């Protein structure tokens, strides 16, 4: 805990079996600690964190004041009891969370490991392992630290590991020790090993290690292939030995694990600001009343000094005013009572239980229920704008199936009847009848491929031979004839399994041979070379010698790179295969092309010499190998292509579609290769063929990445200008707000500025013009490019480009890069982020996001333990956000609005009473009423509303995802809403005080005795207060008010400039003919009437189209305003008629001519709490050509008016019907 911080390492030196030498470098031990507190630090650290809440500090200050008898007119227990209660509840919750972290740490630290000490293997706890120790690992054991593999029980010192904890991949990977240490397989030999390793310092790069072993006056280069990283599991290997290089917090697993962060919601942060404002308001009221006290004591109080002297400490009117100020600070502190925070915690706890009890988020297959692991973030679930998702195990089941293939120009996999129609419900083929080694779980339906194998078609046999030889799969034979494949990628396993079922069975391999069974006959091939896959090559090849001595190269890879390396005689076959590949890609399948090349002995010998030279190179080794690979992979003959399906989890495409309609952007951050991620993007409908363009960033230098991002942005702008004819870009928020056809281009990448004379005054452009372009773009970026894009001088360019795209996929990213991407969006977009994953490689991302969600899947529970919410299926995310999140946000906002209202109404009565009691800090209410007002008298109604309130049923929230957007825009509780609440509270206090005062002040009984006394007045006021604020609960339903303007105009809309009623309209923008279908009603909030049916309900297809066209609804108008404000754009507000001219929608008249020309009308909403305000629905007009919308259509839409006699001024059609008729019929 008090360990001195060491300077950063520049290099690391480790000597085997020499603890004394290694300890002088003070390397970290292997003990890990992910908890935040210990027994000593818990109380001070936890209290420090809690008093970062401004409210807690505020109440502590008030408590100190109440302990001073000269200024306190209230007992101290009214503050200390609830304050201690709140602090204790929070402390217990934090202690419980940290206890489980300690428990997890202790479980890991106390695992046993075999350490070589003094030539003898001894059992040691992981926490006692030190850098330089030699450890023995056995099959299925976790790797305790980052080890240099010294030797293995397997031939050629190979070692097989599973890396699910690191990169989320459950497939097998191969590691190999140096040949010089592979002989040290005996503890006696290893005890004499004194080699020294000089390597790079601790870092978070999972796929790279650079070092050198010095032993016996020789040096040997070390790479990542020689390393076993902490978190891996040893598989299919009896035992191995390793030298500890990095331990504990220095291991790559821990370097990629973010620290536990204290998460607060945006409402919590706003509350801190509001408490400061309220305290300032409280001080102002105290100053006013203190000044009043000084004046009263000087002018009036002096007359009473003879029989009513001041208390002993007070000797003049100024000191009396000073004490009065602090007394009023205590009395008026109930504007923010401590019970507010108690109530908030109770409400959040209730919302958490609703999530835990939701049976529709229960997975019966895994017997797993949803779990809210925190109670502090529920309302933040209703404000999410960005979702960052892992791919493997989160979107997919990580299960691959071989579906289709194309061999020598013929497609297999589609089962057709005689007429050429695809048959349904076909039984899968039975392979076991003729192939005892077939996998019984493999399903294939096309009999014609099996027939081609049986008749011996050479192309089909060669195709399947490629699948059985060109791979890195490991085979394990559990018992005779029972094979288990361990593949580095599941799609590779699916291809080998397909070849196995069609008679070409991969049986085993050694470093120099591959053994197969081809149609029942054992064949052993000599493996001459493996040309491995990487992101640049996008292909893999093997060179083998068959038993007859013929040498052949087999290659599989992406069709885009393979087709460029084919012999010219393959042109016709390549065209046919390309058509098949396009069909497969359209079905969302993952495709590979297959080819081969025959090599002569001379060609092989010459190339092998160059290959050995490149392999032994000490500098630019990767580049030299790539050049040698390129030489041999030429003039190949095409065999065909494969199509594999990565099975998605249930409901993933539908969930992504619904979340997209709710304006939630989804980014996929995966450690998988680019082709895999892109195919999954198509499968889950993140990527579609209808997209305008998909940008791929693969640069390896800072300059190349910057250039690719710049070209992507230019293409977006060019696409927008091309599509909209260069005149309508401003309809989507381009530059300023101008009339259609007269729009001012916003500068930037475009210098297009038409007809400046007709433009409204220019506005400052937003920080990124790209965000307002309504194109269907996607961005795909690789991990090495992302490393450059996240640098300080380029991160804004990357963020602007990515945020302008509908879908973003980041491939080959490390766990830390995932966290950095989330942090980038959090820092610059000021949006609520959610990260979801299922593996240990997602932990840092989950901790960094505002909200972390863990999937309890196939990769352990590390993600669940680090998460705020957990469940077993990605599809439950839509219910978590659109139902529970939306309700939690709505309830919390209404609760806060009502709470501030009722407490200002309660407290301000004391302020008015001060002017009638000589500013003596006398309270109006009884002391017990003050104490119990929030705890007893008004607690149940507000808690019931905060826990159970619903504006629309849960099914409507899922059917209409647009209902989610007010939370993203923070419409329901913000500074404006807060001021409205306190204004209503102050108004209520005026009525509650002055009406009873006016009635009772001069009233007398029949016998002449005055009717009024202090107690009667106090009881009357208190009773009226409780009744009024209790009745006001039902009036806290938020209403979106439409401002009605005379002359037939209806506020603002989207699409063009305002024109006079009945005049013709200019050219409409994209999507201008589709209506949004929104309407609002006071009784049911802004949501219920949207979903009440009648003529406002959109079909699912219409809703999808509506969302895909970037709906120009009132919410989009507010979003643009919010974006303009957040980016600091200084917009000049239009006034009068200019308001219509600078708005983006033509006004709507009820006359037939205006109705016929109206393309789309949406009005700017204004939030209000008044029950008498106007609620105006938006007219819904079906998609027609401009001029076809009839007067009858206009009159169908209900208008809700204040008063039944209201009519549109200057309109030729009759006014709308009264509200009662419409609401009754709608309900």
What does this structure look like?
This protein is an alpha+beta fold. It is built from 39 helices and 35 strands. It has a 9-stranded mixed sheet with strand order 14-33-32-31-15-27-30-29-28, with helices on both faces. A 9-stranded antiparallel sheet has the order 17-16-26-25-24-23-22-21-20, sandwiched between helices. A 6-stranded antiparallel sheet has the order 3-2-4-13-5-11. Helix 3 packs across helix 4 and helix 12 crosses helix 13. It is elongated, with a radius of gyration of 37 Å. GO terms for molecular function: ATP binding; ATP hydrolysis activity; magnesium ion binding; phosphatidylcholine flippase activity. It is found in: Membrane.
Helix content: 25-40%
Q: What structural category characterises the helix and strand content?
A: alpha+beta
Main sheet: strands, sense, barrel: 9 strands, mixed
Strand order of the largest sheet: 14-33-32-31-15-27-30-29-28
Runs in which pLDDT lies below 50 for 5 or more consecutive residues are 726-768, 1037-1114, 1127-1227
Termini separation comes to 64 Å
The outline comes out as: elongated
- Compute the number of helices: 39
Summarize it.
By secondary structure, the protein is of the alpha+beta class.
